[in-house]
Design a protein that fits this description.
The chain is α+β, with helices and mostly antiparallel strands. It has helices at residues 51-68, 89-103; strands at residues 5-8, 23-26, 29-35, 76-83, 111-116, 126-133. The protein is 24% helix and 27% strand. The chain has a six-stranded mixed beta sheet with strand order 1-2-3-6-4-5, with helices on one face. α1 (51-68) runs parallel beside α2 (89-103). The mean pLDDT is 96.
Length: 135
């Protein structure tokens, strides 16, 4: 028997600006759409020019969506990070490392890929999506 696909929606993360959901769950699998440094309450992009603060805010949005699916951040097995500038990598990496270590009490950190690319909004220095598997 196949499990139906269901959308994930939480007020604790920004509403999607386009034709997609914050995330989708199918059985134990949770895919979080790419998130940026957006305040869920105001939909404003935060921390212009500060890649560390943008990374943390973006991961907070990812975590809220994972939790909206009934999972925990510790269930995340893969994160993809998109950066606009290669020189931002060390700063992003430090903020990222602090966040994932604090939010993965099981001690097994998610796998990660980092890609350097253009992003949809000029003020975005980072975008992150996630894949989680729950029990």
């Amino acid at each position: 028997m196949s499990t139906a696909k269901s959308p994930i929606s939480t007020p604790h993360a920004p509403a999607p600006a386009h034709t997609f959901h914050q995330g989708v769950r199918k059985g134990p699998f949770v895919q979080v759409s790419g998130q940026g440094p957006v305040d869920p309450a105001t939909s404003e992009y935060l921390f212009p020019g500060d890649v560390a603060a943008q990374t943390t805010r973006t991961l907070e949005n990812v975590k809220a969506i994972v939790e909206g699916a009934g999972a925990t951040f510790d269930d995340v097995v893969m994160l993809r990070v998109y950066l606009t500038k290669r020189e931002d990598f060390p700063v992003m990496n430090d903020a990222y490392g602090a966040f994932v270590e604090a939010n993965c009490p099981g001690g097994v950190l998610p796998a990660r890929t980092t890609v350097f690319t253009g992003l949809p909004r000029e003020e975005m220095l980072v975008e992150i999506d996630a894949f989680a598997i729950t029990d």
